[in-house]
Amino acid sequence: MLLEQSKNDFINIVQTAVEKKYCITMGCTTCISHEYRTMLKNIGDTTEESIVKLTKALSDIDPQELRFVPEWRDALRIAYFDLPFIVIPEILDDWIKVLDRSIDFTDYVTYYIIRYTSNENDEWKNWIKSSIKLAKNKEHESLTESLLWCISNKINDYPDFFDYCKEYATNSKKVRTALRKSCGYEFKMGNK
Predict the structure, then answer these.
(1) Number of other CB atoms surrounding residue 149 within 10 Å
(2) Mean pLDDT, to the nearest integer, of 81-85?
(3) In whole angstroms, what is the distance from residue 145 CA to residue 44 CA?
(4) Distance (Å, rounded) from C-alpha 138 to C-alpha 143?
(5) Which pLDDT score is estimated for 189?
(6) CB pairs under 8 A, 24+ apart, for 3-11?
(7) pLDDT band at 191 (very low <50, low <70, confident <90, very high)
(8) Residue 83 pLDDT more than 60?
């Protein structure tokens, strides 16, 4: 059963695609999610209008509403990565403002989107800073792990978070693995 009509065009497109059983699989090698991508491209009357409308819809996402939409994860990545690079900062700036509304949204975006964003961008740095605060406040294992995979070799730029992760790793195999494989830190019990 799908949600009522949303005020957000992106959410409505995803719901329609799910209802029509369109493929919404990131990296689908059979159909490349053609019907869904066509819906995204046709959100406006022209290509430029479609980019503007989709950018606004993604920027205005309410993570609390999004979590009730089936298949939102791959749908979000497809829409995000299909947009021109120039609009990405606007979307990320707006998502940073609402990242504390759903830790599942923040964790997903961190691992699958921010991780593939240049760590030299202000948007990346702002996202990391805000997400670290959220991960520590909620003591959230998955977001902590995702941040480690995202930060990787820049972990020394975040000494407080690094210390937090070393402490967290005493009870988390996922965090220990991310520290070792992504950050090159070999964790040993009793070592900090």
Answers:
(1) 16
(2) 96
(3) 38
(4) 9
(5) 72
(6) 3/65, 3/68, 3/69, 6/65, 8/57, 8/60, 8/61, 8/62, 8/65, 9/43, 9/53, 9/54, 9/56, 9/57, 10/54, 10/57, 10/58, 10/61, 10/79, 11/57, 11/61, 11/65, 11/66, 11/69
(7) low
(8) yes
